[in-house]
Every structure is written in C-alpha cells, then in structure tokens.
Amino acid sequence: MSVVILDHPREREDNDRIAIVRINRPDALNALNLEVRQELARIFRELTEDDEVLAVVLTGDEKAFAAGADLKDMADRTTVEMFHRKTERLWQAIADYPKPVIAAINGYALGGGLELAMHSDIIVIGETAQVGQPEVRVGIMPGAGGTQRLTRAVGKFQAMRICLTGRPIDGREAFAIGLASQVVPDTEVYETAYKMAKDITRMPPIAVQQIKSAILKGQDASLETGMALERAMFQGLFATADQSEGMHAFIEKRRPDFKGE
Ligand code: CO8
C-alpha cells in the first residue's frame, strides 16, 4: 500500500469532483519521510494538470494528520545532505496547486505536519487534535514554513510562543487563534471538510481559483498592489460565461449552472 493514497473521482461512484489525498504511514503516525513528501509532490503535480478535480481534501487518519518530519530518517543527516535533498521543490508542488485544498486534521499535526497543513487553504480541525512546532525540542527549528506561514496566520506573539516553547495546542485553541477555519468534534472532521469541498466545487471554478490566487498573492504584497491585483482579476471575471450565468440565474430566481467557462 502506498504511503500516500489518492482517491480520485474517476474511481468513485459519486459525481463529486473532489480528490482525497490521504497520508498512510500509520505505524509512524504519518511522519513525513522523503518517500511521503515525494509522493505528495507527485500527486499534487498530477492534480495540477487534472481538469476533472476542482478541490482537494488532504488528510491523515484519526491518530495523526502527520507527526512531523521523520526523525529517524533525519537524526544523522549532515547539512550537505539536507541541502542536496532540495525538499523545497517538493513543498512547492503543493503550494503551486491552484485549486482549493482543505486539510482535515485529527490527532497530531506537528512540525512538518503542521507546515504541510499550512500549505492548504482551509483547515478543519478536531477539538482534541494536537498541533504545534516542536522542532526546538529536538535541537532544530521549523524548516518548511513554521516561522513564516504560521506568523502570517496567527501573528508574531502566538507564533513565537508556539515555535519557542514547542508545546502543542489543541484544536479548540488552534481555532481560537486563527490557525484553523473551523473546529468540530473529532468524529465530524472529515465529513465537514468533504462537505465544504463539495460546496466549493459547486461555485464557478475560474472565480474560485482567482480568489485563492488573490488572497495568497495579496498576503505578500502592499495593500495598493493587492487591491490592483484584485481589481484586475475581478474585472477579468466579466469575460466568463459563469459571470453571466450567475447573475442571470439570480435575477431569474433559479440555481446557477456553472461550467468553468
Ligand atoms: N518521526 C519518526 N517516527 C515517529 C515520529 C516522527 N516525527 N513521530 C512518531 N513516530 C513513531 C514513533 O517512533 C513510534 O514508532 P515505534 O513504535 O516504532 O517506536 C510511533 O510513531 C508511535 O509514536 P509514539 O510511540 O511516540 O506515540 P505516542 O502516542 O507516545 O506519542 C507523539 C505521540 C507525541 C506525536 C510523539 O510520537 C512525538 O513526539 N513525535 C515526534 C513529534 C515531533 O517532534 N515532530 C517534529 C519533527 S521535526 C520536523 O518536523 C522538522 C520539519 C522541518 C522541515 C519539514 C520536513 C518534512
């Protein structure tokens, strides 16, 4: 069985255009060894070219989303070996995926596991999940966005606390500080994430992708540049058939039928 399982709509009975990407190393609490990261990158690259899929649910199992980088694999590595792994390219394949990714987190999302979750666009988390950046406790620091994406998500003071103490926080607290989009009872995490993905796949696909792009690009730009980008994208959507369909459906009091055109 592969360390990452892709459940593609073409293999299912439903007509949902959702891919489910599931990390599958239960014996190591889904720790992210090189093989898992290579598989994740391969799958996200493949999905980038896949018009059938409109949203992704990224998940693990009930015990762990992912308990971090594989410490057994990293313990004796040298700087030069870490450099030559060029794992930034593997992470970038996930960051570059243009459609919405919803992370469904149960159990542990620690270190590289939380960094992976922060590559997604929406996080649905279980109340008792444990998330954090414990790298400092094993002599290192976050290396895949823990000091950067986390700070953008929760601000300096929470990011400092989480990274400097290495102490995990639970799902309720993660939601309270803005590290999750929604917190639900543990048993409802996957279902909630899937339902949210389904809602999004009913929206006009071009607008959805432009919204994701505007939010991510705008985060790293000045307000003026972000506003200019948003305005250009907004105006651009008036060239789509879905804009006309959406507005006329509203006026005619019927459900819109978006086609991604
Ligand atoms: N790496 C390798 N194996 C792991 C990891 C891990 N991160 N986490 C758990 N495992 C393994 C354990 O070794 C154990 O295996 P075995 O039965 O063969 O000994 C099995 O999973 C079950 O784990 P535990 O027995 O420890 O389970 P507990 O329920 O007692 O504890 C914890 C669960 C609290 C999650 C504990 O396992 C733990 O602290 N794990 C390590 C968490 C951690 O420090 N993560 C950060 C790693 S560093 C990092 O992510 C750096 C990121 C930098 C860049 C990104 C690269 C991907």
Any overview of this molecule?
InterPro entries: ClpP/crotonase-like_dom_sf (IPR029045), Enoyl-CoA_hyd/isom_CS (IPR018376), Enoyl-CoA_hydra/iso (IPR001753), Enoyl-CoA_hydra_C (IPR014748). This is Enoyl-CoA hydratase-related protein. Belongs to the enoyl-CoA hydratase/isomerase family. It holds the Pfam family ECH_1. One of its GO terms (molecular function) is hydro-lyase activity. The mean pLDDT is 97. The chain has 2 domains: 198 residues, 2-enoyl-CoA Hydratase, Chain A, domain 1 (Alpha-Beta Complex), CATH 3.90.226.10; 47 residues, Lyase 2-enoyl-coa Hydratase, Chain  A, domain 2, CATH 1.10.12. Helix 1 links the parallel strand 2 and strand 3. The longest helix has 15 residues. The strands form 2 sheets. A 6-stranded mixed sheet has the order 1-2-3-5-7-10, sandwiched between helices. A 4-stranded mixed sheet has the order 4-6-8-9. It starts with a strand and ends in a 10-residue tail after the last helix. Helix 1 runs parallel beside helix 4. It is an alpha/beta fold. It has 12 helices and 10 strands. Bound molecules: octanoyl-coenzyme A. The site of octanoyl-coenzyme A (CO8) has 21 residues, from helix 2, strand 6 and helix 5.
